[in-house]
Amino acid sequence: MSFLMVGVFTMQLLNNAKIDDIIEFTLKNEGAYSSHPNDRGGETYWGITREYALAHGVDGKVTKKQAKKMYMEDAIKHGVFYLDPASALYVFDACVLFGFNRAVSWFQHAINLVAGRRVINDDGYIGQKTVSAYESVDKRAVIDMLHKRILQHHVVTAQRNQKQRVFLRGWLNRAERRYKEFLENLNNG
After folding, report:
1. In this predicted model, what pLDDT tens digit does every residue of 78-110 receive, in sequence order?
2. Residues 137/111, Cβ–Cβ less than 8 Å
3. How far is CA 152 from CA 149, 156, 183, in A?
4. Quick one: 51 exposed, middle or buried, by C-beta within 10 A (0-12, 13-18, 19+)?
5. How far apart are CA 110 and CA 105, in angstroms?
6. What is the pLDDT of residue 91?
7. For 21, phi and psi rounded to 5 degrees?
8. What SS3 state is found at 153?
9. How far apart are CA 41 and CA 145, in angstroms?
10. pTM, whole model, 2 decimals?
11. Distance separating alpha carbons of residues 120 and 129, to the nearest angstrom
12. Burial 9-38 (b: 16+ CB within 10 A, else e)
């Protein structure tokens, strides 16, 4: 277990077993390989695009082990695994779909909306201020707000680009699975 001390505030990194469970949830959603002609990400292995893989020094087919490593590095860099397990699962899976900066910024924006004022910057990184702000508001309300934004994004994307409509049902189903998993994990402590 890893701790990050920031002043008197300690952010605790989730243990490796919980991190692995979260990543496995997303890998099951992504599948090992995909190459749909309408997918703007192109060919992917475990949800990893060629561009993302190259940015992590991997050229060619991405193994499951490599995908886990890339995802773990970016999630830790963006602070996702400093959240409680239920929230980390929801935010992490959204990060894989939308990119870490965008999904974390949406999460931070939802915190501000639930707080009723700007309490943190939407900077795409979960640090001490984000964790403190999240702990001080209703977590379910934040994830509800984020969930609605994601659903809206999927619908708008499909409306704007006819080629993307083929993915809408799958996107919405995945969002609902992610939300259900969040609620189950939140209720189970």
Report:
1. 999 999 999 999 999 999 999 999 999 999 999
2. yes
3. 5, 6, 20
4. exposed
5. 9
6. 98
7. -60, -40
8. helix
9. 26
10. 0.92
11. 7
12. eebebbeeebbeebbebbbebbeeeeeeee
